[in-house]
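Subgroup meeting minutes
Present: P.N., E.W., G.H.
Scribe: E.W.

1. P.N. recapped why we're keeping a running log of single-chain structure predictions: easier to compare across weeks, and new members can see raw inputs and outputs side by side.
2. G.H. added today's entry (136 aa).
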Amino acid sequence: MIAASKDAETGAAPAPQPSGDSVDALHALILHQLEEDQAQDTISIPLAGKSSIADHMVIASGRSTRHVSAIADKLAQRIKQEAGRTVRVEGLPNADWVLIDAGDVIVHLFRPEVRSFYNLERMWSFGDAPPAAAAN
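Output recorded in log:
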């Protein structure tokens, strides 16, 4: 049993294909962690049937670059720990806009001003979600 878990940890065994349940569990884990880390204005856009890049896109804001960076670091660690997935993180050095690619769920973390400028909610919602409120 120890050898099997060690093989999975080192990547020796191929990872099983994600099921709908594992995608939902990953999505729930991400939303919970963002709430725990006090991410602001978190929204989730379902992409299943709209795009082949992922099943869900989650967009959230941090209060500052330090907050965005801390949220991204902790989320990436938690996904690896809980879901056993290696994630790709882009944009961490500047932390204005950090992209976390967890495969079936893509997470965008922004500073509020940057989020307002790019307005990804409007681009990806295809009419399903109202436009994002402007930052005051």
